[in-house]
Predict the structure.
Amino acid sequence: MADLPKHSVSVSGIVTDADNRVLVIRRADNGRWEAPGGVLELGESLEDGVRREVAEETGIRVRVDRLTGAYKNLAGGIVALVFRCTAQEGAAHPTDEAHEVRWMTPAEIRAAMVPAFAIRVLDALEEGQPRVRSHDGINLMDSDPGRLESTTQGKKLP
C-alpha cells in the first residue's frame, strides 16, 4: 500500500457566557489568542478530547453540544473540529498551556485573533449547518475575507 498522507486531528470548544462573550486563551506556546483546544489523543473520542482540552487550558468543565465546523490547515496538515459547548462548572484561570484566559466579545475576537482562528469562533456563534473551511495557518483559503464582518444570530457584529 502506498504511503498515506499524515494528518493531525485537533478539537476546540467554543464556550459562551450569558453576555454572548466567548472563552478564549492566550496560548503559552505561541502567544496567540485562540479558543481552547488541542490535539486529539489516540483512543480518545472527539467529545472527550474537547472536554479534556477545555478543562486543561481553562479550568472549566463543559458539556459538548454540537459540531460547528471542520477546518483544514493546508500548510500544517492539521484537521480541526470545532464544537459549541456549555460551561458546567469551574472558574476560568490561567494554566501551564494558557498564560491568559479571558471572555471576549465577537468584535474583540476579530481584533485579537488571526483570521483562520477568528472564523472558527464566529462560525460557532451562528446557527445552522457546520462550516467546512481551509486555511494556511493564518489566512482563509476558500472564504470571503469579508465574512469576518458578517452577522451572528441575525445581528451585525460590532
